[in-house]
Design brief:
By secondary structure, the chain is mainly alpha-helical. It is built from 13 helices and 2 strands, in the order E-E-H-H-H-H-H-H-H-H-H-H-H-H-H. A two-stranded antiparallel sheet has the order 1-2. A hairpin with a 2-residue loop joins strand 1 and strand 2. Helix 3 packs across helix 11 and helix 11 crosses helix 12.
Amino acid sequence: MTTVRTAPAVTPPDSTVLRTGTLSWLFPRRSALAAALLAPVLLALIALAAMASSTGMSLPETLSGLLGTGDAGTVMIVRDFRLPRVVVGLLVGAALGVSGCLTQTLAGNRLATPDLVGVNEGATAAVVATAAGSATGMVGDWWLGPLGAVAAAVLVVLCAGGAGSRGYRVLVVGIGVSTFLGAVSDLVMSRENDNTAGGVFLWAVGSLNGRDWGVGTPLLVALLLLLPLTLAVGHRLQLLRFDDDMAACLGVDLRRVRAAGLALAVALAGLAVGVGGPVSFVALSAPILAQRLSGPTRVPVVGSALTGAALIVAADALGRVAAPVELPVGVVTSVLGGPFLLWVLFRTDRTTGKA
């Protein structure tokens, strides 16, 4: 009597195999469900953020302004003044979330963020340097942030021995470079007058004040170009969860994939910092929350983008109504991010013993 053995199932439990002829696709059910749940939450946050201000506009009036069905004054206030800031916040949050997702995956550590590889400090130093000596105290153009981020990342990679180095080595070198660049920025600002220092301080803590379509449009174009590349790289980064030998056996060019992931993380973080300033904790928290929603088998690129966008929009709206004076979005994320970081450390210590 012949015994027929059934081949073991290799499809992840949260996915479905879709086949069309010779083509097949592993559809991530849980990730798709998480994105479908985050989308309406994000729409609700957009409406609430457009309403949040000291003018006392009601939610129905805000919705009529967003849809263009209200009076001319309401439509102008909502669409021309509030909506651009909200959209810029969405884009900044999405860029930070995806950048943090890539950095954490490359380093194999949930506490790894673009801050640790010198990206934020490089972008900040570039903008601060242009404001030095300014009589108006205005920060430089937003595109200086990405240039400074790239320069800092190149310095970190060169000192670490290449982008293909193990994650911990890049992080250690990045911490040193970040500390040095931060000290340089502080030294430059300490030599400036109060007007210049005060003007740059608001941006340096992370702020969306005054951001409009002038910076939102190029940021949107950049994200439309970078996010498809990030999705492609994220698919390959899933294999890096095995050890290097196993990933190489599965056909992954480790050096090339790590270099591409690091380059995309730097570009996205540089764009976000250049536009909204070094907003803290979003790049840390968004991928962790997205991972909880999408499950452990995926690199949550889309989920991190949606979660990061939601966090920035919610924090910016809260900063406009939580105090008599408007709080920069970076201050709100810092206040809320501290307890979140403690939660991550406490939970990690009890479960796995490591970050």
